[in-house]
Automatic annotation (TrEMBL):
Residues annotated as domain DUF6830: 454-568
Protein name stated in the entry: Zn-finger domain-containing protein
Source organism per UniProt: Lyophyllum shimeji
Domain of life according to the entry: Eukaryota
Highest classification ranks of the organism: Eukaryota, Fungi, Dikarya, Basidiomycota, Agaricomycotina
Pfam families: DUF6830 (PF20722), Plavaka (PF18759)
Length: 573
């Protein structure tokens, strides 16, 4: 983190057995900042860039070694700790995961940039799609011991650095994980979604599309896309923007395949589609053996067709076209399947949380300091912030006569809450949970309908946009002259498959209901329950059905995909 010429590296820690949905929300306070690690600045210590890099890495490992010293002892011998009920238990603090981007993973694993931090792949193997054996911690330590055996002094920097590069090492001679029981970089370095997937897409595949389609044409296609409520519309295109956040990267990924369709070769579309499929499959919240196999097949399909990016000249740099796929992040993708089987769903190992914590636990406290001895002032700021939060919780419970012990409810909640403290207060002191700074809860439209077993909820406003409008007027305003016939077919139960011609209502045919006026809404909200997490209600999405107007000659309507049961299909119109 840069702070106006002053640099520090915050380090955050959490407990692995916290539910991932809670752990991924910074408002849940599931992470703690445990250290501000100094950074070796080349301006302060002018030297060769290689020397700056090796000293920076050594300082980082030495600092982390001191921070986690007690955790190593507890991992080896165990330590009595209180559980949520206050009972003492013997706990072993093992290192099970470390969320970091690729440069930090290389620094942590103590290997050079020409190697993968988690596998035996090297530069020439980054783009071949093969699954390489894991680069275990013992293998890396054996390489370091070999340098000592050869009589090389680790503080003879030029000689040690040359020997380290030849062995595929970074030059760190004492990695912090060397004496941490069961700590292995090939296992605890989890795939990181924000940089490994989304930033990779922005830096490479998106550039291939820009080169092949052409920036003006690609911008025009994104500008002409349909606008949807809740999703960013790139009104000026995507090629002129120099820097985008991870959210914009995700938004572009959603539509990049249809955006390039028709402007590139079919194999280009197939390869890009396979890569996007792999990205989405890798971010699934739940996996089975079959879904992992599908993810692997998508990556294999991409590698089988990726040659089109070279032959078409799409993979190009500042010096022109390239003839290889030696991209370090691309070399991490084959290891996703192994990581999922070892660590579970990898969507939880994204740097989105740490990027936000960087602001709340480092940048914000720094701005409140006088910029002199700011580390101590930042720590005091965090300490007082936590004390205020706990004091507020304590006084709220005591003032309302509630128990200070959060008794876990045996009954399974119908809706998952991602803020434990506010959920606790909502049960014991209703109405006080808002005062804890919890995020605004998602409005649950399922509570407002009669069918409690429904998987979809709809919501409209009290006042319709077109109250008491005749069907004939609706047909004219929406320029859909078969609306009366469509309603009639639906109410009569005419199956869609049996209607082989356009809907047609005879002059002497009357609709089978008594009223003739309908209320019309130009938009409504639809809400789903997560298919793989039945207790999680997703945020509602807005569906538009705006009639044609001067600003929208063809109307402004969203497409909706419906999955119907066999009985519902018979009645579909």
């Amino acid at each position: 983190m840069g702070t106006g010429g002053l640099h520090l590296h915050p380090m955050f820690i959490t407990i692995a057995n916290i539910d991932c949905d809670i752990r991924m929300k910074t408002s849940s306070h599931a992470w703690e900042c445990v250290a501000y690690i100094p950074i070796v600045d080349a301006d302060t210590f002018p030297m060769h860039s290689d020397f700056t890099s090796i000293l920076h890495d050594r300082v980082w490992h030495a600092c982390v070694d001191k921070v986690v010293a007690s955790l190593k002892v507890a991992a080896q011998y165990g330590r009595m700790m209180a559980d949520p009920r206050g009972d003492l238990r013997l706990a072993h603090t093992l290192l099970v995961g470390w969320i970091a981007d690729l440069p930090e993973q290389l620094m942590i694993s103590a290997v050079s940039g020409a190697c993968s931090p988690s596998s035996m792949a090297t530069t020439k193997g980054f783009g071949d799609g093969k699954v390489y054996p894991p680069r275990t911690g013992q293998y890396t330590l054996s390489k370091i011991r070999a340098l000592f055996t050869n009589g090389i002094d680790p503080w003879d920097i030029p000689r040690w650095l040359n020997a380290s590069k030849a062995a595929g090492l970074s030059g760190v001679h004492q990695p912090f994980w060397r004496d941490w029981p069961f700590a292995d970089p090939s296992r605890f370095l989890t795939p990181e979604i924000l940089h490994t997937v989304h930033k990779f897409f922005f830096d490479h595949p998106l550039n291939w599309c820009k080169v092949r389609v052409g920036q003006p044409e690609l911008d025009a296609r994104f500008i002409s896309m349909h606008r949807r409520v809740g999703f960013r519309h790139f009104s000026t295109g995507i090629c002129r923007v120099k820097q985008l956040t991870g959210r914009e990267h995700r938004d572009i990924q959603r539509t990049i395949v249809p955006a390039i369709y028709g402007a590139v070769e079919p194999d280009f579309v197939s390869a890009m589609s396979a890569l996007i499929d792999f990205f989405y499959q890798a971010q699934a919240p739940v996996f089975t053996d079959g879904s992992i196999d599908d993810m692997v097949r998508s990556l294999e399909l991409f590698h089988s067709k990726k040659q089109i990016f070279l032959t078409s000249g799409s993979r190009a740099g500042k010096r022109g076209g390239m003839e290889h796929f030696n991209i370090p992040k691309l070399g991490l993708f084959p290891g996703f399947a192994f990581a999922i089987k070892e660590m579970g769903a990898i969507f939880q190992y994204s740097a989105d949380v740490s990027e936000k914590l960087l602001g709340t636990d480092a940048k914000v406290p720094f701005r409140s300091t006088n910029h002199r001895d700011f580390e101590e002032q930042c720590v005091r700021h965090l300490d007082r912030r936590d004390k205020i939060r706990f004091f507020h919780l304590y006084t709220t419970l005591k003032f309302n006569g509630a128990s200070l012990q959060n008794i876990i409810s045996v009954a399974k909640p119908t809706v998952t809450t991602l803020h434990p403290a506010s959920e606790w207060l909502s049960h014991v002191v209703p109405g006080e949970d808002r005062r804890l700074g919890a995020p605004r809860s998602i409005r649950n439209f399922f509570c407002e309908q009669d069918n409690i077993d429904a998987q979809i909820a709809h919501h409209v406003t009290k006042r319709p946009d077109l109250p008491s409008t005749t069907i004939a007027a609706i047909a004219v305003q929406y320029q859909l002259h078969d609306i009366p016939a469509a309603i009639g077919d639906y109410l009569r139960g005419v199956p869609f498959d049996n209607r082989l011609s356009p809907r047609c209502l005879e002059d002497n045919d009357h609709l089978p209901f008594r009223f003739v006026d309908l209320h019309v809404w130009h938009k409504f909200k639809i809400q789903h329950i997560a298919s793989l997490q039945p207790n999680l209600i997703l945020p509602a999405q807005t569906v538009k059905a705006v009639p044609p107007s001067i600003s929208h000659p063809w109307g402004d309507c969203d497409a909706v995909r419906c999955e119907l049961s066999e009985e519902q299909t018979k009645r579909a119109c």
